[in-house]
Amino acid sequence: MSVRLPAALAAVVLLAACSAAPSKAPSAPGASTTPVAEAPVATHADDNLNAVAWSQTAIEHDLIYRQTYRDAQSRLLAALADKQWDALPKDDRVAPARGLKPAVVLDIDETVLDNSPYQARLVRSGGEYNEAEWAAWCNEQRARALPGVVAFTQFAASHGIAVIYISNRAKDLDQATLANLRKEGLPVSGPEAFLGLGTFVEDCEQIGTEKGCRRQLISHKYRVLMQFGDQIGDFVTVLANNAAGREKAMTPYMDWIGTRWFVLPNPTYGAWEPALFNNDYTAPRDERRRQKIQSLRFD
């Protein structure tokens, strides 16, 4: 069951969540379907330029993804054979895992699909994230698979392991998202292959855009062998999006990193960013930037 939040709070929570659409404040005019050649050129410095450039051009970026998925693949069959193995946090395991079908759970954006062209458009235009432009980008179905993920998911599927995508893409983007996944060669099967934002889960109270309810839904039918994401909210519910709250959410599961949970890099957006300015997207852009600079260490 969903909880209706005040508009301002709902926007903050939506933008801060894992595997959500990129967490940015409202954007300047201009749909994401505008050809790049016609897009206005930003006249001010953009904090996201280096992050997007690194994501698109640095071979180190691709090597991290390949390394992560290859390492996961090398461990997958051992996890499958261990009937006690489960990668859901205790709060999300609402049904016993023993005897259930095996699955791997992946976030989509910046975990499976590369949305850096959308971010590049924002850098070029000087704009910031908004839902309409994000939905337009998703409907283009042009996001590429990230390195290593196709081989990993196909390997999992070939061994009878369900591949489930939990994403904070809105549920009305499900057909475009599934089509994009299929075009990139990613396995898609069954009604639970894509659990988007707005998925109804009986007897579970939705907390903003947290994914806990959807993980609980999976727990009724699957033993989860591994989870993959670029945000800690892809793995566990984060009740307080600040440094202390984020550390508290992860501390019980540190031993799972690299065995049950595989975390991928995303310097372009995520809940880590609003945590630096008290999750206040109503603050002017310059003020948010000032607070981010304040968070830096100088020794």
Automatic annotation (TrEMBL):
Cleavable signal peptide: 1-25
SUPFAM superfamilies linked: HAD-like
Name of this protein: Acid phosphatase
InterPro entries: Acid_phosphat_B-like, HAD-like_sf, HAD_sf, Lipo_e_P4
One of the Pfam families matching this protein, by short name: Acid_phosphat_B
Keyword set, alphabetical order: Signal
Domain of life: Bacteria
Gene Ontology cellular-component terms listed: cell outer membrane
